[in-house]
């Protein structure tokens, strides 16, 4: 029988899956396989929150496959060795997969494709994760972009959304030895994930539900509501996109069909995701080092584990920052506006290196994506791709007053402050007696003085690089 392997990675869906569709079109029988090989993604192996999501997403995919007469063949070990074993066991003639774009994964996949072809196995890969391949967009001088607006202008002009491929109704499958998903040990031994179940539905059905909720309830007001953390004004599709439970092209197609405002604003956010992958592909060192080498001279403060720990626990004494960090710990997610504020506080007010924050987010976010995480932290720290002619420092108090004016977001996640009036909740340290009664800490740092220190550091960078 003409058999092929379909190697699932971060494309955990059956609908609109190019590798699966191509394999089914060319072969009588397929073997859906997932190989758990986190060591191959080092130094950015999946963190705890990502592993939680992966456990549930794999179970969802397996259920969907079984409903179609198939099953997910789970393996644990080196990807090439496990694929070779399955090729021998099933007599497969080909291996199909959808591409991933992190530096370690690209290098691995190149080696695997060549190794399979060397022994006569056809190996084919497809784009299922991006609107456009990172190498397909270039500047007029045929180089990579470093600024988002011209990049987006180029991508938007060529973007032609197309309808998604349907999910197969039946999947003829060859059997092979397999491990169980539970055996991968993805769930935490100490159950810190109690709030995740209430917040999320991993899997393709969950992605579909999130998309429909967004289109039905939020897309019309997206341009204005997206910055208000107390509202359900964002799509919350980011973890579904990261694990490939839905494709960005599917979202772009649905947006094109919708008759409402907010479409271009949200499509632009998908463009930021594309831009992040563009940057990581062309500048793979940026996951560990400054994209802008001028900032190699920035005078970061000495490591301050106690301060960082207070930031991680949401005990900084700055309400909007603490609300964001507590939302992150409870749900594995944080509103994007608040992500910028907590990142600015760590890198500008505490002057801790952006990698300190990037690694914490990596372990605690269910949507931890190397391209997005890297670009987001470098953008806020000022060390990455940014057209701004100044050193951006967010004031968490004025930002809180602007985007959470009645304090609803702060009250939800910092309940100690729930009785404080809307005028005072953004700066409760003005009433120390009330703070002592509610058990909330005074600010761990002076915002104005720390802003001045951050700007002095920026002046030192400019001086060293001859910009003044």
Automatic annotation (TrEMBL):
One of its GO terms (molecular function) is FAD binding. Gene3D superfamilies: 1.25.40.80, DNA Cyclobutane Dipyrimidine Photolyase, subunit A, domain 3, HUPs. This is Deoxyribodipyrimidine photo-lyase. Keywords: Chromophore, FAD, Flavoprotein, Lyase. Residues 2-131 form the Photolyase/cryptochrome alpha/beta domain. Belongs to the DNA photolyase class-1 family. Belongs to the DNA photolyase family. The record marks 300, 354, 377 as: Electron transfer via tryptophanyl radical. Its EC number is 4.1.99.3. SUPFAM superfamilies: Cryptochrome/photolyase FAD-binding domain, Cryptochrome/photolyase, N-terminal domain. It comes from the Bacteria. Binds 1 FAD per subunit. InterPro entries: Crypto/Photolyase_FAD-like_sf, Crypto/Photolyase_N_sf, Cryptochr/Photolyase_FAD-bd, Cryptochrome/DNA_photolyase_1, DNA_photolyase_1_CS_C, DNA_photolyase_N, Rossmann-like_a/b/a_fold. The lineage of its organism: Bacteria, Pseudomonadati, Pseudomonadota, Gammaproteobacteria, Lysobacterales. Transmembrane segments: none annotated. Signal peptide: none annotated. Its cofactor is FAD; (6R)-5,10-methylene-5,6,7,8-tetrahydrofolate. GO terms for biological process: nucleobase-containing compound metabolic process; response to light stimulus; response to stress.
